Batch of 2 targets.
Target 1
Amino acid sequence: MAKADIYGRDWARFPDLKDGSLVVADPGFDCIPAGTVCEVFDGPDGLYTPCRCGRHYLEGQADHRDETDAVVGFYPAPAGVPAGVRIGA
Ligand SMILES: [Zn+2]
């Protein structure tokens, strides 16, 4: 795994995320439509975003192997686009 997807698009990084941050889901989720802008919340078990399963914890997307702090599967969201909008991924 790496800090970017196979097309070179950088993943979001844990140090950049906090309660209220926005990220964009890639097409790899069964529980989040591809390209959806997702709001990040700080819950009792860490950062998560709401999904069809309930809470999708970002720690489950962590790239522990090369310590890039990448949140694999989520991209940084572009400025000015609200949560819930699909922008493509
Ligand atoms: Zn989920």
Target 2
Amino acid sequence: MSQLCQGSTSSQEPEDPALLSRLDEAIEEHRSQPGGLIPVLQIAQGIFGYLPLEVLKRISLGMDKPFTEVAGVVGFYSFFSTQPRGRYLIRVCLGTACYVRGGKRVLEALKRELGIEVGETTEDKLFSLEVARCFGACGLAPVITINDDVHQRVKESRIRELLASYRSREAGKE
Ligand code: FES
């Protein structure tokens, strides 16, 4: 397992004043930079775990950009999510190398084990499932990420065991 920086781990309350002031700092820092909207959205998603409507409105006001522009950027990039995510975000690479080396089968096994479709979150809010296009580790396909952990040469037959390791990690925290 290796590490890949992807920001958020779980969804946070968008009303938290401490988190909102971190967002305001990011807006302040990037508001006059050309192309500053995307880094602010990335930071916001890193802070809240997703991009709730209130946060998008605050960014639109703070960056002095029309809401439609902010929402358009969010809709364009699959990395951004306007829905709360589970504690663990699973992203399955379906880029060419991963697809031909079993990525689709890995995805099907995850859907089966978790009982959810792509874009959904399990009822216990532990796992969310998404697909992605190439993590740049094609030689080790198929690849999936779970939060910042990168799992390479993933086998369909190991999915249950892999999920169990995250479930027991969570159980250990209680
Ligand atoms: S195609 Fe999956 S890592 Fe490149």
